Amino acid sequence: FHFINFFDLTCAKIVDFFWINRTKQFVCFYCFLYFCIQMAITFFSIGTNLGNRKRNIERAIALLEKRVGRCVKISDFYQTSPWGFVSENEFLNIAAEFETTLQPLDLLKVTQQIERALGRARKSENGTYCDRIIDIDILFYDNLIINLPQLTLPHPLLQKRDFVLTPLAQIASEWQHPILKKTISEIKKAGFFQHDNFN
Question: Under a CB-based contact definition with an 8 Å cutoff, are residues 14 and 136 in contact?
Fold first, then answer.
């Protein structure tokens, strides 16, 4: 009887020892992942004025979820006139918030790959704009300020574009611009942008 109790107690201690150590290992591993693989918040402006515009945006969101990370919020669809050029084709625009572990330049590369996969041949250059089947612009990446030849963050024209600010304000009105030190709602109220005709 005493032997059985001693045996049971010993086994229990062994199980507790290994359980506690495995728990510690799990906690340490979780902490390692948390600190080394931090999620970043990024915002996109997505627009299209060719083909089935709603379908184009839905396909872009699906590919972003597959390649970039979890979609946190999506604005309503906003129909606007072209900005920076003349066209008979109205744009459909949204803003979207995503979580990602991709670094900014890797994120840019993925968005460009998705644009090509959806049929876009090239990006606008030197302020020359044209009709496009899809356009994915990175607006913010956390609060980072980046000035590189291939990427500027925050997006340098977002405060001038109502078709960006209106959907963005719907999902992130209190997000603060790290350079202007104003929230999206404050920037929109300030009216720096060129007005568009929303439908």
Answer: no
